[in-house]
Amino acid sequence: MAEPLFQQLEKLQQEFRGLPPVASWNPDLCGDMDLVIQSDGHWVHEGTEIKRQPLINLFASILKREGRHYYLVTPVEKWRIRVEDVPFLITQAAREGEGASARILLTTNTGDIVALDKSHPLMLKPFGDPPQPIPYIEVRAGLEGRMSRDVYYQLIDWAEAREPQEPPARLCQLFLRSSGEEFLLGQY
Q: In what residue span(s) does the DUF1285 domain sit (predicted)?
């Protein structure tokens, strides 16, 4: 019997997406690179959008965050880059199970696959103009991803609406369940 797609995705992430140990690489700063990760997920080098996905994935694999700055690092080089919001955009969501046993996997624009769980919780942060609370998740080592509009709507479809438990809250709240945890998705 073939494994469900959900489990195949997890195995691929673990077996073939091994990431370099950038957390242990601490070379001296070489300078600033004219590379911007735009808030819409596009990577732009010297004013030109990088269109080759394998190159973007390579850069994403050596991305590191220190404080509020982002760097591309190797064992011997460290280049500061600019990130307009966060480096990753969550472009796909998959759910396995229902209710308390549900698990949600999120996939980034660079192929990282992350389970929504206690180690990778959902966070609501302001985004846009005017700012609206949008869900984010830590992808790896302080690097976050923001949900795309399509994924956000998918999560809303999976969410459970509840009346608030404590006054003075008067808004209905939306909760998501994944990996035995509950996450506030928003309120209306």
A: 20-86, 87-184
What's the pLDDT tens digit per position in 10-65? 554 454 457 888 889 999 999 999 999 999 999 999 999 999 998 899 899 999 99
φ, ψ dihedrals at 3, nearest 5°? -70, 145
Continuous segment of H or E residues that includes residue 88: strand 88-96
Q: What is the pLDDT of residue 187?
A: 79
Helix H or strand E encompassing 10: helix 5-16
SS3 48: strand
CB 155 within 8 A of CB 93: yes
Q: Does domain 88-187 have CATH number 3.20.20.140?
A: no
- Contact residues for 13 (Cβ-Cβ < 8 A; gap 6+): 112, 113
Taking alpha carbons only, the member of 124, 133, 118 closest to residue 177 is 118
Domain ranges within the chain, ordered by starting residue: 5-83, 88-187
Number of Cβ atoms within 10 Å of the Cβ of 76? 9
Q: Is the peptide bond before 75 cis (omega within 30 degrees of 0)?
A: no
Assign domain 5-83 one CATH number from 3.10.540.10, 1.10.10.10, 3.30.70.560, 3.40.50.720.
3.10.540.10
Provide the Cα torsion 179, 151, 51, 54; round to 10°. 20
